[in-house]
Design a protein that fits this description.
The protein is built from twelve helices and 13 strands. The longest helix has 22 residues, at 171-192. Helices cover 40% and strands 19% of the residues.
């Protein structure tokens, strides 16, 4: 497993908000859902994304935008159009005065807009909860990552366009998995651009020594790794590994391992049926007490507090 795959291989989209938006001018929607991540792709026409800070970006057919929350943004037919509607948490849409629009603008299964034959169609996929996308990945992305059609190729976009309006058993799970794969494709394309500035851990994957060490840590975080054992696997001295790892990744190997173990633990804790002892064993801690101490020291909250917060977040999303 490489570092990118590891970051995307935790709890993934679960009942993600997916929608086909079909519009004719004039239209403008202010998105204030607070979601950690949203993907948008235009299949017909043109749409403008106007972030809270930064320049407006035009999306044309085949383009994709990855928006990192929770800052609000506007999606419109032209960049200077004042908002005519507002999308809140859970995808609930209303006029600026608060009048619900879900029914009046419904155009069918997961399809919404002001004209069934509108000239602009935008596919929207939103991860609604923290933990569905790794924090390290979110931190590595800009508030708005825009990939024009000629900078990325993803055969899954036509599949999403076809599946998004279907209403069959298991359809939510199908859409979740397609959304995950499109996210992976977009992130890989974003980091592969000539002008890209990928995070240190991503660049370090290409190093024959540090890349090997990173893969070992991600493949088996529960192993009792030491700098010496990692160095032996990588075929270098302990001092050489420690120096090169810190130079390329920006932190020592054991610090990275601790952060990775706790990131995995944080995701596992979102499953209320997994005991703290079981989580501790899966990420390399000898006991629930040892995990709790490390979790509190690094993350500032106890595992129990983190789990309660995740449960509350799920409840709020379901109730929206």
């Amino acid at each position: 497993m490489d570092a990118l795959a590891g970051l995307l291989d935790g709890p993934r989209a679960k009942g993600a908000f997916l929608l086909r938006m079909v519009m004719d001018p004039p239209w403008s929607v202010r998105v204030e859902d607070g979601a950690p991540l949203c993907l948008m792709c235009v299949t017909e026409g043109e749409a403008w994304i106007v972030p809270a800070s930064g320049e407006a970006v035009a999306l044309r057919p085949g383009d994709i935008a990855v928006l990192r929350g929770p800052e609000p943004y506007v999606v419109a037919d032209v960049p200077d159009r004042p908002p005519l509607a507002r999308v809140g948490p859970g995808g609930n849409c209303a006029t600026l005065e608060g009048e619900p629009l879900a029914e009046s603008m419904s155009l069918g299964v997961r399809t919404w807009g002001n004209a069934l034959d509108g000239g602009t169609t935008v596919l929207v996929g939103t991860y609604q909860m923290d933990g569905e996308v790794g924090r390290r990945l979110l931190d590595a992305l800009p508030p708005l990552a825009h990939l024009p059609a000629d900078q990325w190729r993803c055969p899954l976009m036509p599949l999403l366009d076809e599946e998004i309006a279907r209403d069959e058993p298991g359809q939510s799970a199908v859409l979740d998995r397609v959304l995950d794969l499109i996210l992976i494709a977009a992130v890989r394309a974003w980091f592969a651009r000539p002008a890209a500035e990928p995070p240190a851990w991503y660049r370090a994957m290409g190093d024959p020594v540090v890349g090997r060490a990173l893969r070992l840590l991600h493949d088996d975080p529960a192993h009792p790794w030491t700098v010496a054992s990692l160095a032996a696997k990588a075929g270098v001295s302990r001092a050489a590994l420690a120096r090169r790892f810190t130079e390329l990744v920006g932190e020592p190997p054991m610090t990275y391992l601790t952060d990775w173990r706790l990131a995995v633990a944080a995701d596992l804790l979102r499953d209320g049926d997994t005991t703290l002892d079981a989580v501790a064993r899966r990420v390399g801690y000898s006991s629930a007490f040892a995990l709790s101490a490390a979790f509190k020291r690094v993350r500032g909250v106890s595992p129990q507090e983190h789990r309660k917060g995740a449960a509350l977040e799920r409840t709020e999303v379901r109730g929206r």
